[in-house]
Amino acid sequence: MSMNSTGRPTHIGTGADITAHGAALLPNEPLLFEIGDTHHSGVDLPEVQISTARLGGFERRSDLDLAGLTEPEAMRHYVRLSRLNHSIDGGFYPLGSCTMKHNPRLNEKVARLPGFADIHPLQPVSTVQGALELMQQLAHWLMTLTNTAAVALTPKAGAHGELLGMMAIKAAQDARGQGHRKVVLVPESAHGTNPATAAFLGYTVKPIPAREDGTVDVSAVKAALAPDVAAIMLTNPNTCGLFEPQVVEIAEAVHEAGAYFYCDGANFNAIMGVVRPGDLGIDAMHINLHKTFSTPHGGGGPGAGPVVLSQALAPFAPVPFVRKTGEGLELVEHAEGEALGRITAFHGQMGMYVRALTFMLSHGADGLAQAAKDAVLNANYIKARLGGAFSLPFPDYPTMHEVLFDDAFLKGTGITTLDFAKALIDEGFHPMTMYFPLVVHGAMLVEPTESESKQTLDQFCDVMLELAEDAKAGDATRFTAAPMKAPRRRLDETRAARQPVLRWDRGQDLPQAAE
Amino acid sequence: MRYLPHSEAERAEMLGVVGAAGIEALFSAVPNGALLKAPVDLPSHSPEFLVEAHMRTLAARNQAAGDGPFFVGAGAYRHHVPATVDHLIQRSEWLTAYTPYQPEISQGTLQMLFEFQTQVAKITGMEVANASLYDGSTGTAEAVLMARRLTKRSKIILSGGLHPQYRDVVKAYLRDDPGLVCLSASPDGQGDILDRIDVDTAAIVVQTPDFYGHLRNIEAAAQAAHAKGALLIVVVTEVISLGLLEAPGALGADIVVAEGQSIGNALNFGGPYVGLMATRKEFVRQMPGRLCGETVDANGERGFVLTLSTREQHIRREKATSNICTNSGLCALAFSIHMALLGEAGFTRLARLNHARACALADALETVAGVVLLNRTFFNEMTIRLNKPGAEVVEALAANGILAGVPVSRLVPDDPAVEDLVVLAATELTTDDDIAALVSGLKEVLA
C-alpha cells in the first residue's frame, strides 16, 4: 500500500501573510487551499492500475487543483476554525424563533449505532424492520402530542415541511374541485418561508395585518376569507411570542369558508405536551425536530420538518410511509390514489428521527410538558426583569417561550438594534434575533429555551440592563464599534454583495483594507 | 429531569418575579379547554441507560451494511469515512452552532462553507457553488426551477436515466405542470432526449453515471441543448465518480447537482445527506440556497459572510428564489473535511479504486449463467438482467446475509421491461470475498 507523499511544492499557497497566528487562543486560520496542496493526503489508499476500457472515453483530462491535508494538519485546521464559532455548548444562544436548546449527547451516540447509521434506504425492508418500527414510534409520539390523524415524516427541514403541507392543501382543494382558490392569507408577522412557500406553489399571498396587541384579529381574517382563498398560514404561538387567543375562532372561520389552516409549528416548543394543535383546529403543521426535539443545528442544518395532518388532509400525505401488515411492517413507496407522490428521494432524515425519538423517550410526556413550561417561564422571567428598562411593544399578554422588545428604548441614543446586539457579543452572549418580526420597529426577539439555568438568565439580564443604562447615558462607542473582542470586527457585507468572491482561486490577492 | 436545570424552589422564585400565581397563568391566552390538565398518553421520562437500551433493541433488528457482502447503491453508497471526520463534526462548536447570522462569532462555519463552495466548484468544474441543499433529489427540483427562471421558458425534459425517485420529486414539485416531459425509465439508453429539445425548452436533465450505471455523453448533450438556447442540468448521484471522470463543467454543463453523501456521510437509511449545486457565475443570482462570500472587517482583515441574500426568503419573502432556509450544514462540513483529507491525490486514488472494484464485480458477474451485464460503460455501478424477477433474487440472497443490490422494480413498479433487472454497486469496501459470496449465492438462486 502506498503511503502519503511527502514534501510540499513551494508554488502553492500565497505566502507569509497567511501564516499569522492570531492572538492567544483566537487563531487566524488560513484557508485550506493555502495550507494544503494537491499531493498531500490524509488517507492511505492503494494506487491501482485501471483499464479505461469501460469509461467510454469520458475520463478526466484536466487537474482538479484540489488541496489535501494529512490527518494532523486537518485536525488542527478544523479545530482552530471551530474555535471561531459561538455554540450552544459554549454559551447562551437566545436566538428568537430558533430554539437553541441543549443537544443531548445520548442522541448522537445512538444515531451512530451501525443498525441506524450503516443501513441503506433501498436494502430489502425485511432487513430494516427496526428502522420502520422507529419511524412508527416517532410518528405515534408526534401524532399524540398534536392530536392529529397522520404525519408525513419525510420533509428535510421546516421550510420543506411547509412546502409539503401546502402541497397537500393544494391537492385537497383540487380533489374537491376547488382548484380556483389561488390566494393564501399570511399574517405580516410570519416567517419569510411562509410567503415564499405559498408563492412557490403559485399562490398569491395576501397579508393580514396584526392588531395593536400583536395578535391576529378574527374579524380581519373573516374579512379576507373570499371564495378564492385556499388556506391561511398562521404561526402559533406567533412570532411576537404570543399565543393567538382567537385561534379556535380563526380555524372555524377558515373551515367555514372552505379553506384550510396551515400552522407554522416553529414555536411548538412553547406548548409541546401542554396544548395539542389538533384541538385548535389546524389541518397541517410542520414540526422542526432540530428546534423542538433537540437535534443539533449543525451550523445550519441538517434539520427535519415532519408535518402532522388532519383527517381531511391525511389522504394526501406523500410517500413513503410505514404500514402494518400481517408479517411485520412494510414501507409504502409508491403513491396510491390522491397522494402527493414524493418530495425527496428515500425516506427522509432518519438520523434526525433517531435523535428526536431519543429525546422524547428521555423526557417522556411529563418531561416534555415541563420543558415547555420552563421555556415559557424563562421568557417571562426575562420579560419581567428587563421590562422596565427595555420597551415592550405588546405588554398586555404573558409572553410564551420568547419575548419581543422593540427599539423605542434606544430613541435619541444614536444606537441601533444592530449596534446593541453587537455589544452583546463583547459580553460573551450570542445576540437575539434582530429586525424580526417585521411588525415592530427594530425588533429584538429573545428565546432562552428551557435549557438555561436561573443563574445564566440572571447574568444575561444583568448585562442587558447594564448595556441599556450605558446606551441611555450616551456611551455610543461601546455599541457602534462593537464587537471588539470577537475574532473579527464588523464585516463589510456591502462589499461582499457588490463584488462577490464566492470561492478561492489560485493567485487570488488577499483583500485590501476597506476603503 | 436531567436536561432541565430549575429546581422547584427556583421555579417558584421566578414565578414570583414574573408576578404569576402559577405556571398556568402564563398560558392564559390558550382557549378554555385546550390547555391539557394532565400529560398526554405517552410514557414518562426515562433514565439514559433505559433509553439507550430501547434504541439498541430497535437497531439490532436491522441488518447493517457492514454485517456482510453488500452491493446496494442506486443513489446512496457505502464508503469508508475516516474516523477524523466523525470526531471533528461532533465538536460542540460545529455541532451546536446555528446558521451563521452573526458573522463575527461564526467565522469557523463561514470559512468552512467558503472552502466547501470552492471544493464543490472545483470537482464539478463550475465557477460557483452554493453552501449546500438538502440532498441531490431536492437539488434537482431546485435546479429545474432555476433553469426556468433563467430562460423564462417552461419545458423541462428529464432523461430516462435519471434516478426514478429524483424524477418523482421533480414531478411533485411541478405537480400537473404541462411543461414537464419525463422520458420513460430505460435501462438501455437515455431515450431520444436530444431530439426532443426545442425552442420552448428551458433545460434537459441528464444524470451521469445514470441510474443504471451507464456513463453519458455530456458534451453532446450540452451542444444539443445550447443549439436551441436550452440549459443542460447534469445530475451526479455518485460524487466520487468526479475523481475519475471529466468534470461536467468542462463539458458544457450549465448547472450541476450532486448528492454529496458518498464523501464524509454515512448511509443513515437515506438521510441526512447533502445536496451540492454549482453553476456559472452569470447565473448566481438565480441560484437557490445560502452563499458564503469573502470580505473584510473594520480592521481590513479577511473574513466571511453570508451574501447575496436578496435572493432568499427571509429578505424577499414571496419573491425569493426558493423557500429554503435550513440546509445541510453539518453534512457539508463532513463532506469538506473528508475532501480535505483526500485532496486531489486521495480523491483520484479513491475513484480509481472504486472503478477497479466495480470492474472486478462486472468480470465476476459475467461468469454467472443466467446473468447478463447490460453496461458497456460504468463507474462503480451496473445493471444486470436475470433469468428470474430481480426482487425475488435479491430477497433470496438477503435471507442468506447477502445484500445484493436494488431490484429496479422497487423504484419502477408495474413495468415488465425492468422486472428482471438489478442495479449493483461496488466501492473501495467491496472485497474479493464479498464478490465470491455474491457469485456463489447468485449461482444457487438462479440455478
TrEMBL record, chain A:
Keyword Plastid included in the entry's annotation: no
Chain intervals for the UniProt region annotation (Disordered): 484-515
Reactions listed under catalytic activity: N(6)-[(R)-lipoyl]-L-lysyl-[glycine-cleavage complex H protein] + glycine + H(+) = N(6)-[(R)-S(8)-aminomethyldihydrolipoyl]-L-lysyl-[glycine-cleavage complex H protein] + CO2
Coiled coil, from the record: none
Listed InterPro entries: Aminotrans_V_dom, GDC-P_C, GDC_P, PyrdxlP-dep_Trfase, PyrdxlP-dep_Trfase_major, PyrdxlP-dep_Trfase_small
Residues in Aminotransferase class V domain copies: 181-298
Keyword Oxidoreductase: yes
Pfam families, alphabetized: Aminotran_5, GcvP2_C
Record-annotated Glycine dehydrogenase C-terminal domain positions: 371-474
Enzyme Commission code(s) on record: 1.4.4.2
Enzyme class: oxidoreductase
PANTHER family noted in UniProt: GLYCINE DEHYDROGENASE (DECARBOXYLATING), MITOCHONDRIAL, GLYCINE DEHYDROGENASE, DECARBOXYLATING
NCBIfam families xref list: PRK04366.1 (NF003346)
Name assigned to this protein: glycine dehydrogenase (aminomethyl-transferring)
Organism: Devosia nitrariae
Automatic annotation (TrEMBL), chain B:
Catalysis: reaction(s): N(6)-[(R)-lipoyl]-L-lysyl-[glycine-cleavage complex H protein] + glycine + H(+) = N(6)-[(R)-S(8)-aminomethyldihydrolipoyl]-L-lysyl-[glycine-cleavage complex H protein] + CO2
EC number: 1.4.4.2
Enzyme class at the top of the EC tree: oxidoreductase
Entry keyword Transport: no
Listed Gene3D superfamilies: Aspartate Aminotransferase, domain 1 (3.90.1150.10), Type I PLP-dependent aspartate aminotransferase-like (Major domain) (3.40.640.10)
Annotated Glycine cleavage system P-protein N-terminal domain residues: 1-440
Source species, domain of life: Bacteria
Keyword Oxidoreductase set for record: yes
Protein family according to the UniProt entry: Belongs to the GcvP family. N-terminal subunit subfamily.
Assembly and oligomerization: The glycine cleavage system is composed of four proteins: P, T, L and H. In this organism, the P 'protein' is a heterodimer of two subunits.
Stated name of the protein: Probable glycine dehydrogenase (decarboxylating) subunit 1
Gene name of the record: gcvPA
